[in-house]
Amino acid sequence: xxxxxxxxxxxxxxxxxxxxYIQKFNRKIIVVKYGGSAMSxxxxxxxxxxxxxxxxxxxxxPIIVHGGGKAISKWVGKVGKEAKFVNGxxxxxxxxxxxxEMVLSRVNKQLVTMVEELGVKAVGISGKDGGLLQVEKKYxxxxxxxxxxxxxxxxxxxxxxxxxxxxxxxxxxxxxxDQFATYNINADDAACAIAKAISADKLVxxxxxxGLYKDINDxxxxxxxxxxxxxxxxxxxxxxxxxxxxxxxxxxxAVKNGVNRVHILDGRIPHCLLLEIFTNSGVGxxxxxxxxxxxxxxxx
Length: 300
Fold this sequence. Notes:
Layout: H1 2-24, E1 29-34, H2 37-40, H3 42-57, E2 61-66, H4 69-78, E3 85-86, E4 89-90, H5 94-117, E5 122-126, E6 133-140, E7 143-154, H6 157-164, E8 168-172, E9 174-176, E10 182-184, H7 187-197, E11 202-207, E12 212-213, E13 222-223, E14 225-227, H8 228-236, H9 244-255, E15 261-266, H10 272-278, E16 285-288, H11 293-299
Parallel strand pairs: 1-2, 1-11, 2-8, 5-8, 11-15, 14-16
Antiparallel strand pairs: 3-4, 6-7, 9-10, 12-13, 15-16
Helix pairs in contact: 4-5, 7-9, 8-9
C-alpha cells in the first residue's frame, strides 16, 4: 500500500511540474517535424502521436510536418529504380516524384488515422493545398537534381483556418512552382518555413541523435541550451558537420525570424516531446533567442 502511494505521489509531482508549462503555452502554436527512426518504428510512432495529441488536448495548437524518405526509397526500389542523392538531396525525376507524392500521401493519411483514433480531429494536407508552399527548382552545387523544391513563399491561411476550427493539421512536404509543377521538399526546410511564417512559439525537430554536441565523439560536450547566434558561431567555426549542419542552420534561422524557441530531440526516446516541454530539465537541445542569453547562465 505504501509503495502504491509513493507511485501515485510521484505521478502527482509530475503533473504539478507540468502545470506552469501548460499555463504558459496554452493556445500557442507548436510545429513538430516528424521523421527518421521515430517514424519507421511502430511503437515510437504511436508514442509521438500520443504526445502530440496530448499537447492538443491540454491547450496547445500543434502542427505536424512529416517526412517519409525511407519509405520513398523503399518504393523506388520496388519499381526497380536506384535511389540517388547529391549532397543529401534525392535526385527526383518524373517517376520518382510520382512515387514520392504517392508515398507521402499514404504516410499522411496513416498519421491522420492514428490521431483520430485518439479522439482528436486531424486534417492531412500537402504544401499544394491552399497554396501553402510555393517553390522554385533547387540545385545541388549547380547540378539539376529534378523536382526538388526550394521554398520561396508560404501562405499559412489554410493552417490558421484549420487551427481556428480546432483541427490538428498534418502536412506532407510537397509544393508547387509558379507553373504548377509538383516538387518534393526537404521536410526540415518545410517545417522551418512554416514555423517562421506563422511565428510559432516552438519548432521541434525529432531526430536520430540526442541533440547537439560540440564534439559528437565526446558525450560530455552535449549542449542543452544555446542561443541562435551561438549556434551560428558553431557553424562558422566548422564545429558542426554532416546532416546536423543544415538542421542547425534551419534552427538558428527560425529563432531569428519569429519562432520563440527551437528544440532538437532524439525521437527514439519514448515521449521525448513531453519530457522536453513539460519538465524542468528537458532531454534535448534548446535554441533560444539572443535576448534570452541569461537563461543559459541560469541553467549553467
